[in-house]
Every structure is written in C-alpha cells, then in structure tokens.
Amino acid sequence: MDYVHEKEQWSGAIILKEANKEDELMKVLNLYAGIGGNRKLWEDVEVTAIELDPIIAEIYQDFFPDDKVIITDAHKYLQDHYEEFDFIWSSPPCTFHSRARFWGRQTPTFPDMKLYEEIIFLQHYYKGQFCVENVVGYYPPLIKPQNISRHYFWSNFFITKFQEPDYDFDSITDLQRHKGLDISKYSGFRKDAVLRSAIYPPLGKHVLDCSRATQPMTLTAFTKQKRMKNE
User: Is 183 among the domain residues?
Assistant: First the structure.
C-alpha cells in the first residue's frame, strides 16, 4: 500500500510523520490509536500515536496531520518509550473482554491479559499521568477501575462524572455523526467496528482535562524550568 506521508523505518515500525516540536506542549502517547476519537478535541498537545493496522493508521494521519504516527505494536512501544511522555492513554483491544463475546456463537477464548499488564506496569513504573480504557467486561475486573459512561478507566487521577448521549449503535451514519468522524471515503476495513471502538471525542477531552486538573507540572515544563534556572 502506498502512503501519502513520507515513511521512515524505526525498529521494524513505520513512522508516517514526525510531529512538530513545541517544548511547551504536553507530550502525549496515544496507544492503540484507531482513528483518533479520543484525540479529536485535545488541544495544546504533542501526540505520538501508535496503531498496528496500516489502513487505520493512515486514516488517523489524515485526521491529525500534525501528530507523529507510528505503525507498530503498542504494547512493546509502551515498554520501550513510556518515560518520554507526560501523559499516556492506552485503549487495548476490547474483543477478549467485552460482554459481546456472548452475543451469538463465538468460540470460547482466553481474555487477553495485556490489558492488566499495562495497568500494573504504568502503576508501578510510570511517573506521569495515565489512563487505560476498556469496555465494561463480562467478568468482574481484576483491578478496580473507574466506571465512566459505559467505559472502564484505570488511571492515577480522578475522572469526574460524564454521560455520553445515546446513539444508534448499529448505524454507520449515526456512528459517524455521533463521533464526528467521517470515514465514508475510506475502504478495506469494517467501518462499524472501527467507529464503535472510537472514543466519543468529548469524553476523550474530559479525561485529559481531568488529568490536567491534577497534574502540577509536565515533564517538558519541568525540563524548561530547570534550563532557565541554569542559564
């Protein structure tokens, strides 16, 4: 597949675009980025987005041309690069945790424990603000989350109440309207699944705003302050 943006090799990954560098911006790592529903309303951020599917990654890049988009495994990238960011958002695939596993005939399978690996990893190693998002699962959560508007959030800050409005879960047209993400010109993937997995943009903004309300200083601001003191 040909990409619109310049490609660069990085440890087996493909970088579609380098982000613009602004020291004063919050450095955000957006894992399992999808088409960027959570990111749509973020402001004053420098985003690195990780998405494994090349088709979905290019749609994300079209929507957010100033973000750095890397096509690689998000789980491994988190382990290797977590210290480089002020805020980390992770939305691991919900397929193995969702109550939808019991809708119709689906083959029994183990839950993907990478979800809890990332929660525990961030809780014990990461010094910045983070949230791990997933669906309300079919089993009791192994680590207690915050239950916000049909989602589980594991974070190291408090997320205030938020209510997402109702919408037609089965209509691609209504999903696009609700999420504010028009993917009608793209093809080669299940549009309903991609839209359903996209976070409602006002909720994504709400979570980041809650993070900023409890974060005293970003890593980049701290570095800048230290530099000024040494001059």
Answer: no
